[in-house]
Amino acid sequence: MMKKRLSMIAAAALTAAMTLNGCGLVSLNPDEVVIKVDDSEITADAANFYARYTQAQYETYFGAYMGSDMWDTKADKGKTYEESVKSSVQDELKKMLVTELHMKDYNVVLSDAEKEVIRKTVKEFDEDNSLENKEKIMADKEAVERMLTLMAVEQKVRTAVQKDTDRNVSDEEAAQKKMNYVLFSYQKESDDAESEAAEMTDEEKAAVKAKAEGFAKSAKEDSKKFAELAKEQGEESQEATFDAETEAPDADLVKAADALEKDEVTNVIETDNGCYVAVVTSLMDKDATESKKKEIITERENELYTEVTDKWLKEAKISVNKKAWEKIDFNALGVTMKQAEKEPYADDVKTDDQADGSGTEE
Q: Which site in 63, 179, 186, 192 is 20 to 30 Å from 150, CA atoms measured?
C-alpha cells in the first residue's frame, strides 16, 4: 500500500515553548463547559488553551508591528482586535465540535499512528514549558490532548468531505493569458536607499508619458522586439499571466490586454504610478492555466467544506457560556512563542493510505 506522511495541523506550533507576561491565573473553572454543540462539548481548560495558542501566534508574528495596545486596536465592524480574533476562535471551536459529531458519517477514526503523534506532541509541550506557564494558560496534558484530537479529527473530516468536490475544470474556465509589460514610472529614483522616492512634477510626468507613447508606437510596429525596445529606453520588460479578473499589475492594463490578440500591443495605460504598455505573448499559457485549475479546485474544496459544516452548525443546538468566554483576556496575559516552529516527527510517523486515499476507515 502507498504511504503518506502524517500531517498534524498546528502541532509544531503547539510544542513551542512560551513566554508569558501580565497577570496571574485565569479565573476559570477548568471543567466548566464553555461551548456545546449538541452532544459534543469543550471545557474551559481546552478552550482557553486553544485561544491562548491563537493569541501566541498573533503576538509572536504581529506584536512588533502593532505595538503593546494591539488587542485594543479597532478591527472590522467596530470590534477590537481582541474581540475579532476571539470571535474567530469561537467559530473554529464550534466547527471542530460539529465535525467530531459527524466523523462517523464518513467513517473517520484516528489511527494508532495518529494517536501516537498526539501523545508525543503533548509530551514535548509538557516538557518544554514550565509548570507556572502551563498553569497560567490552563494547559494541562488533558487540555492539550483534547485540542490536538479535535484538530486532527477536523482535518480528517475535511479531507473526507472534500472528496466529493467537482474536480473537472476546462481549459476555457481556467485559461490564463500571458503578457510582457513595461511601467514608465512617475516616481523619481532616490540616491538614498532608505529614502522614499519623490513624485514627479506635472511637467516631468508629461515627459514620461510622451516617452511611453513613443515606445508603444515602436512596439506596435515590431512587437517581437518588445523587450529589446524597452531596454533601448532604459526600461525593463516584465512578464505576467492574467485572465479577465486579474488586477495585477494594474486592472486597467489587464482589461486592455485582455481585449487583444496574440502579439498585439496596448495603447499607453496611464495610472497614478505611471504609464503601462504591454504586449500579449500567449492566449493560453499552459503552466499558468494548469496552476489556475488547481486554484479553482482548491476554492471549490473550501466552498464545499464551508457549505457542509455551515449546514451542520445550522441544524445543531449550540450553546456558549458567555461569562466564561469573556474571562479569556488577551490584554491581561500576553503569550508569545520562544522558538521557531518545526514539523514534529515528520520523518518517523507514517500512516497507511486507505484504498480510496481518504485516510478514513471503512
A: 63
Give the number of other Cβ atoms within 10 Å of residue 247's Cβ.
11
Q: Would you tell me how many other CB atoms lie within 10 Å of the CB of residue 199?
A: 13
pLDDT at residue 356, rounded to an integer: 41
DSSP state of 155: H
Q: Evaluate the omega torsion of the peptide bond into residue 344 and state whether it is cis, within 30 degrees of 0.
A: no
Strand extents, DSSP E, 173-237: 177-185
Q: Residue 36 corresponds to which amino acid?
A: K
List, in sequence order, every beta strand (DSSP E) within the chain: 3-5, 18-22, 33-37, 40-43, 177-185, 238-242, 269-270, 274-282, 318-320, 333-337, 350-352
In eight-state DSSP terms, residue 69 is: T
Q: Model's pTM, two decimal places? A: 0.80
Domain boundaries, the chain: 3-166+294-352, 177-283
What is 3-166+294-352's CATH topology?
Triger factor/SurA peptide-binding fold (1.10.4030)
Cβ(262)–Cβ(240) below 8 Å: no
Interval 224-267: pLDDT, tens: 999 999 999 999 999 999 999 999 999 999 999 999 999 999 99
Give me the CATH topology for the region 177-283. Chitinase A; domain 3 (3.10.50)
